């Protein structure tokens, strides 16, 4: 009896071992694969056209004179060659922002960034003085100033219309405004290559400078004079406000007159690029009629 029980136990144990052999074995730990060199490293993603990473690349970009919208510097990386980069940016009036290293890594998409990243414009910015010099002999120069416009699609659309309507230059503040970018260039359908875009500092000071140069300043806003009842044939700066909040109060107070568009529907405002297009073509219409 004991012998039969012993044989039965041995058969059960053998069947259990045989069953275990048929079970799939768990994969080897990642650490073991890494030690054998079997782990694959993901390839970096392609960088956007307007992003430049790495200390040497950004230094050369700054020295080249190409338009740069802003720099991102990783926290704790303000020594050595990064100090030179910050100095060059300050010399050119380019804003440098300190951010977490994680943010730069997310944008760099696997590329070696060394704690430095730059957003470059697709074309160089113009200088306001150069634009004014170019139009000094023109009877009625026409400029457009964008007051804190932040949507790149709106900026691209405005540049496209500006080219078609004969605008001599577009002015954008250095801060709280959409810079030139790959998205802007694409949306403009190539107009960014033909319409000079200048970055300015204080908007109110710039308007005072332009008034001294003989320009009249008109802002697109509510509760103003009907756009088609205002003489727009002289030297003109057309101010278009940002999405949502429109023209800033101080900017509005330094304009010569306010232009409004009739609104007979249920919505009390238009997209910035649409309103800008209507007004730019009204300027063109009046000047062709003159």
Could you explain the architecture of this structure?
It is built from eleven helices and ten strands. It has a six-stranded parallel beta sheet with strand order 7-6-5-9-8-10. It has a four-stranded mixed beta sheet with strand order 1-4-2-3, with helices on both faces. Helix 3 (55-64) runs parallel beside helix 4 (81-92). The chain has helices spanning 2-22, 30-35, 55-64, 81-92, 101-108, 128-134, 152-165, 182-187, 203-212, 249-253, 272-289; strands at 51-53, 68-74, 96-99, 116-120, 142-147, 169-173, 197-200, 216-226, 236-241, 257-260. With 290 residues, the protein is α/β, with parallel strands linked by helices. Mean pLDDT is 83; it is low at 27-41. It is 40% helix and 19% strand. The protein has two domains: 51-120, 2-Layer Sandwich (60s Ribosomal Protein L30, Chain: A), CATH 3.30.1330.30; 128-289, SPOUT methyltransferase, trefoil knot domain (Alpha/beta knot, 3-Layer(aba) Sandwich), CATH 3.40.1280.10. Helix 4 (81-92) links the parallel strand 2 (68-74) and strand 3 (96-99).
Number of domains: 2
Low-confidence stretches: 27-41
Measured by DSSP, the beta-strand proportion falls in 15-25%
Give the averaged pLDDT, no decimals: 83
End-to-end span in angstroms? 123 Å
Helix content: 40-55%
Number of helices: 11
Which class of the largest domain in CATH terms?
A: Alpha Beta
Q: Spell the H/E element sequence.
A: HHEHEHEHEHEHEHEHEEHEH
In one word, what is the shape? globular
* Rg computed from alpha carbons, rounded to a whole number of angstroms: 31 Å
Q: Could you give me the name of the CATH homologous superfamily of the largest domain?
A: SPOUT methyltransferase, trefoil knot domain
> Spatial order of the strands in the main sheet?
7-6-5-9-8-10
What fold name stands as the CATH topology of the largest domain? Alpha/beta knot
Got a strand count? 10
Structural class: alpha/beta
Judging by the overall fold, what is the CATH architecture of the largest domain? 3-Layer(aba) Sandwich
The largest pleated sheet is described as: 6 strands, parallel
């Amino acid at each position: 009896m004991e012998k039969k029980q012993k044989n039965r136990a041995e058969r059960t144990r053998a069947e259990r071992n045989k069953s275990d052999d048929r079970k799939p074995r768990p994969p080897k730990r990642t650490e073991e694969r890494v030690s054998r060199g079997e782990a694959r490293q993901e390839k970096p993603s392609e960088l956007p056209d307007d992003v430049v990473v790495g200390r040497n690349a950004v230094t050369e970009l700054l020295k080249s004179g190409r338009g740069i919208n802003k720099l991102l510097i990783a926290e704790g990386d303000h020594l050595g060659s990064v100090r030179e980069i910050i100095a060059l940016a300050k010399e050119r009036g380019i804003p440098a922002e300190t951010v977490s290293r994680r943010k730069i890594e997310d944008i760099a998409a696997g590329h070696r960034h060394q704690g430095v990243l730059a957003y470059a414009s697709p074309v160089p910015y113009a200088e306001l003085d150069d634009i004014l010099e170019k139009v000094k002999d023109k009877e009625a120069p026409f400029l457009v100033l964008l007051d804190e416009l932040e949507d790149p699609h709106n900026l691209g659309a405005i540049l496209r219309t500006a080219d078609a309507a004969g605008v001599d230059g577009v002015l954008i503040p250095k801060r709280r405004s959409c810079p030139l970018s790959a998205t802007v260039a694409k949306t403009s359908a190539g107009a960014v290559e033909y319409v000079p875009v200048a970055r300015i500092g204080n908007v109110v000071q710039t308007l005072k400078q332009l008034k001294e140069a003989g320009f009249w300043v008109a802002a697109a806003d509510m509760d103003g004079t009907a756009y088609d009842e205002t003489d727009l044939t002289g030297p003109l700066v057309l101010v278009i406000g940002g999405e949502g909040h429109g023209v800033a109060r101080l900017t509005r107070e330094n304009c010569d007159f306010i232009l409004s568009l009739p609104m007979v529907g249920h919505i009390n405002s238009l997209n910035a690029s649409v309103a800008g297009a209507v007004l730019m073509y009204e300027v063109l219409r009046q000047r062709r009629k003159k």
